[in-house]
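Hi there, hope your week has been kind to you so far. Please have a think about how the structure follows from the sequence. I've dropped the whole record in just underneath, so have a look:

_____
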Amino acid sequence: MFIPVSGTLSCFVFLSVVRSMTGTPTPPVAVPAPTDITSGSDFGEDDACDEYYDCAINGEDSWQKLQTTLQNPASTDNWPDGHQLYNDYYTLDTAPYTAVDNSIAQDLLNHGFSAMDSGKYTEATVSSEHPIDPISGPVAFQNLFNTEEGVIIANYNYNRFDLYRKLHWSEIIYQTYLELVKRQPGQSVTNLRAIVRHNLANDHTLRVLWTGYDARKIPIKNYPLWVKWTEAEQKYLWQGLLGTDNVRGVVWLLNDHAQALGKKTIMEIWTRIGLPREEQSAGPVDIWIGIGPYART
């Protein structure tokens, strides 16, 4: 279950529905109050952000653009010019998903979502017709969608297998979600409630998380637990997370299709690092991004 390391055990708010977690709550771990940082570790010139500071700048910029879009009643959705998912560049294959991924299955149940073998999940595979790596094959994006309940589990996403890169990850995820919704009468993309970046192996994102964990003085023993981040409580660290590869795409998804999605925003972010720092170089990392309706302040 999700166990916060500061504050009290809480439940997510998705849209107007509040769903309590099941099971017996585990007492939260006492952690010193968050501390903002003014500089970060050097991540190397090949990373998306050289320093945590740069990630925070990128995150703040993306976040402000989303807020501006959500506050503008006349805003229109930003479709990529001439590039749709179903053309000469991409193919979409879908299949019912009936397996159970034990590393995320209980988390879904704890938040009121159906079991993974309930028949409500679809595995969608988006392939590039011109793969860079002939050995690995053309699959660039493979994710799970539960359009009835509004959750996306992003499992396998590798832009390097997408030679032409006509669409960003955010657009591929949105267009796939939209297509699956169209196949189910009565469903709508406005019910999007959560996006889970599951089992990540992104060294850049992991280093950002380590910097944030260090700033909040989170003990290594608590790394396997879920850690909650909100703009109100950890603004600077929150911005750093928004600037990472694995969260920034969600911000752009909500920005580019704000009207269609019913003007949604990120309510909170939960992170879980699978192993202590000294036992891993990158991953596994899970990031649960809670999405809800925008409320103008």
Observations:
- Residues 3-47 have pLDDT under 50 and may be disordered.
- Residues 73 and 259 are 9 Å apart (CA to CA).
- The two ends are 31 Å apart (CA to CA).
- DSSP finds seven helices and ten strands in the chain.
